[in-house]
Design brief:
Chains A, B: One of its GO terms (cellular component) is cytosol. Chains A, B: This is 3-isopropylmalate dehydrogenase. Chains A, B: Its EC number is 1.1.1.85. Two copies of one chain form a homodimer. Chain A has helices at about 15-30, 45-50, 55-65, 90-100, 120-125, 165-180, 195-215, 225-235, 245-260, 300-315, 320-335, 350-365, and strands spanning about 5-10, 35-40, 70-75, 105-110, 130-135, 145-150, 155-165, 185-190, 220-225, 240-245, 265-275, 280-285, 335-340, 350. Chain A folds into two domains: about 1-100 and about 270-365, Isopropylmalate Dehydrogenase (3-Layer(aba) Sandwich), CATH 3.40.718.10; about 130-260, Isopropylmalate Dehydrogenase (3-Layer(aba) Sandwich), CATH 3.40.718. Chain A is α/β, with parallel strands linked by helices and about 375 residues long. The first copy, chain A, has a ten-stranded mixed β-sheet with strand order 2-1-3-12-11-4-5-10-8-9, sandwiched between helices. In chain A, strands 6-7 form a two-stranded antiparallel sheet. Strand 7 (about 155-165) of chain A pairs antiparallel with strand 7 of chain B, so a sheet runs across the interface. The complex binds 3-isopropylmalic acid (2 copies).
């Protein structure tokens, strides 16, 4: 086959939830005659333990030469005290940067079967379906100068630089407008143009691109602090939100938590289409590595499985197979199966393994 | 009298809600023999219209020479298209900076009578009482270099600088630890030390200060994205949160919205104590200028009144009078009076004026 998938399970519950995906990949091969060249490698703490770095050049090379990367999660207390440059997170950040994955798609969807899991009132979140597009290779995450210096008076000074250029803003905004056209055709662009010049530029460039190429899409602008409030007050007012790396980090996590089921939410990170027609891409669940429950069979594998389904949709052009997997997820939820993180009274608490078996059974029925 | 208060009503509903405070100040004079030298001036759009700048040097001078500033709100669509440097917000930012108001205290309290107004389930927010301490004169709000430049290739580039020094971090952290001692003795310090060196410095300096002077206070650390999630998931886990200017902007607004009643939340911004023993201070409601309802008698004056009460507590050392006002607010709510923003079925919808009369009546009874 020529579908090349690189699996990077990472740390904590990463390897467990990736086990579920492996079983579904086998099923796809067996029953749908859709096969993948699957390679697997280390990232995060696992790579630090083996190689002394959160990702090696060889692994980055592999990631560059596959069609999609599927990542579990990175980090854990074991590596918390490492110096900044050697932390597990640096592996993920290097992959994003080296692969040029500038558009992070973070759906915040409230699953009907899980409305009660939200801390918000059901009427506020039932049917919620937002897509947050977060810029992922620019801004304060990568801006220079950066670092900590000691001043003549003995004080220290920590600096980071928030920086965006015209083209960085335009390319991620184009992804947002494109996606909006396939949804409810509304984009809300979020910055702090009242306080930051980089936000002024962001607003101007998004507005310009909109006028040039996407004037059929409804565009609005909102300050980031107000957006944080509006997500809590009335999240269903949004369709697509596009914002920078740092605001996107916080807003997408807040939005994810609104749904009450972080263990359900996938994400995609996309780069440009290269000469060979290939768009670099990385898929990962929104949840973290959850070291506290790692190795106990308690992990919810659905976010990672749905991330794999996103790869079928966005990278491998297999929308029907993506649909099958999403349907299987809906079916296991409808049957009342719940891993501990989404357990509710009257439902059946199951392990990662039982959930996986149930998913395969549902797939077999289709 | 030597209690000097400068009132800056600002824009939108600012003047209306300040009218309520004026009546309470008169009541204090009449019934408590507590009098103020009240001066009033312009800020924001109102100052732009009159003087062409969002705050004049003369107004800043007045603010420097009073004991406390009480501000309404700034901004509105009329001034939205002004260039960055002349926007209404710049007036507020200049006051914060010139007065050295580095510690912004933002209580997020869920009033018992208003639990139902929250979009969150009652069990998640009932009894909520968080204090967010936001650094207010540093970080990306004021860091240099900043601006928009045009590159040789014709692209533009927007830059802002996130910068913190040892002493900037220590002084705001000290305010947080001090306040925690008077509350539940817990401080959660929030940054992105996994991504930003300025966050690494923040975490190290807070930890150091804690070890040196505040080891009796319980200290924890949290990443800003996780904090945004935890505020939605389980806000009552927090006592005092201390964070930087930009994270604080978003997190305090999200926290405020959890309570369901933005129209109820005051804030205080404090500077250092000067040679004369005076601590510069500015008090303002968390809500904005709400231009859509300005001039219609619909504004909720309680957040501004509670901001005035905070000034009695923190600047004027009149805790009993602050208590009286807070009690009057509780009483009008208990009687079922509600401005439109907090209206609920079975309650009595009232105007700003009726709410004000009811407050004075309650005060008269005490
Ligand atoms: C792990 C961390 C570096 C990362 C980020 O801040 O981008 C994470 O929070 C995310 O959102 O993917
Ligand atoms: C009006 C604006 C400049 C201000 C800020 O960003 O600080 C506001 O959002 C606030 O939180 O007081």
């Amino acid at each position: 086959s020529n579908r090349k998938l690189l699996i990077l399970p990472g740390d904590g519950i990463g390897p467990e939830v990736m086990g579920t995906v492996r079983k579904v990949i086998d099923w796809m091969d067996r029953r749908r005659a859709v096969s993948f060249d699957v390679d697997e490698d280390l990232v995060g703490g696992a790579a630090i333990d083996k190689h002394g770095a959160p990702v090696t050049d060889a692994t980055v090379d592999k990631a560059m030469n596959c069609d999609a990367v599927l990542l579990g999660a990175v980090g854990g207390p074991k590596w918390d005290d490492l110096p900044f440059e050697r932390k597990p997170e640096r592996g993920l950040l290097r992959l994003r940067k080296d692969l040029g994955l500038y558009a992070n798609l973070r759906p915040a969807i409230c699953f009907d079967a899980l409305v009660e899991a939200s801390t918000l009132k059901p009427e506020i979140v039932a049917g919620l379906d937002i897509m947050i597009i977060r810029e992922l290779t620019g801004g304060v995450y990568f801006g220079e100068p950066r670092g900590i210096e000691t001043l003549p008076n003995g004080e220290r000074r920590g600096v980071n630089t928030q920086v965006y250029t015209t083209s960085e803003i335009r390319r991620v905004a184009a992804v947002a407008f494109d996606l909006a056209r396939k949804r409810s055709n509304r984009v809300c662009s979020v910055e702090k143009a009242n306080v930051m010049e980089s936000g002024v530029l962001w607003r101007e460039e998004v507005t310009k691109l909109h006028g040039e190429q996407f004037s059929d899409v409804e565009l609005s602008h909102m300050y980031a602090d107000n957006c944080a409030m509006q997500l809590v007050r009335a999240p269903k007012q949004f369709d697509v939100i596009v914002t920078d790396n740092l605001f996107g980090d916080m807003l997408s996590d807040a939005a994810a938590m609104l749904t009450g089921s972080l263990g359900m939410l996938p994400s995609a990170s996309l780069g440009d289409v290269d000469e060979s027609g290939r768009r670099k891409s990385l898929y990962e669940p929104v949840h973290g590595s959850a070291p506290d429950i790692a190795g106990q069979g308690k992990a919810n594998p659905l976010a990672t499985l749905l991330s794999y389904a996103m790869s079928l949709r966005y990278t491998f052009d297999l929308p029907e197979d993506a649909d099958l997997i999403e349907q299987a997820v809906n079916n296991v939820l409808a049957k009342g199966l719940r891993t501990p993180d989404i357990m509710a009274s009257g439902m059946a608490a199951v392990s990662t393994a039982t959930m996986t078996d149930a998913l395969i059974q549902e797939l077999d029925k289709m």
